[in-house]
Design goal:
about 20% strand, Zincin-like, three-stranded mixed sheet, alpha/beta, 6 strands
């Protein structure tokens, strides 16, 4: 991990007289907020800040896989639910999808996922991947297509989650997958 000043996120340390022993941290926009007891020494603070930055970043990496991780995940889902028939060439996050959760181009076997999915539960991400993978077998939203998608056991639950998220955020949220 690169710990240079350029790669290090902005950090805000908040000392609390009510906090006795516990240290916690969370992401707030572009910075990481670290909460520590007021009685902690500066050297202890420095150690805990490094520890907590690493924890937050590890947690974010697990929730927001890289494009290479997405490809591996999609390949595993293709093997599990489609017998390997829906092998993508690429899977990547994109920032320009505001009205879709994901999209697929069957001709080049590429899948794009909205960055709005980052941080959502893994089973929701898997559903969107399964949906897009099904387009590699059947490009249209017909009965055959939905038969492939319905192989994913949490499909209905994930659809409900995405619909609830869109309604709950009251934003210009994605309303469909493609």
């Amino acid at each position: 991990m690169d710990t240079s000043a350029a790669a290090r996120p902005e950090v805000e340390v908040r000392r609390s007289t009510r906090r006795r022993r516990t240290v916690s941290a969370y992401r707030d926009g572009d910075r990481i907020v670290v909460l520590i007891p007021a009685s902690m020494s500066r050297s202890q603070e420095a150690e805990w800040v490094e520890t907590m930055i690493a924890r937050v970043e590890r947690s974010e990496q697990r929730r927001n896989p890289s494009d290479a991780d997405l490809l591996k995940r999609a390949q595993g889902l293709s093997d599990l639910y489609f017998g390997g028939l829906a092998a993508p060439e690429s899977v990547r996050w994109v920032a320009n999808q505001k009205s879709r959760w994901g999209s697929c181009t069957p001709t080049d076997r590429s899948i794009r996922l909205s960055q709005r999915l980052q941080g959502m539960p893994p089973w929701v991400l898997d559903y969107v991947l399964v949906h897009e993978l099904a387009h590699l077998i059947e490009p249209h939203h017909n009965e055959r297509f939905w038969g492939w998608v319905d192989r994913y056991p949490q499909a209905e639950r994930a659809k409900g989650y995405l619909a609830g998220w869109a309604a709950g955020t009251n934003t210009d949220a994605p309303h469909s997958l493609d």
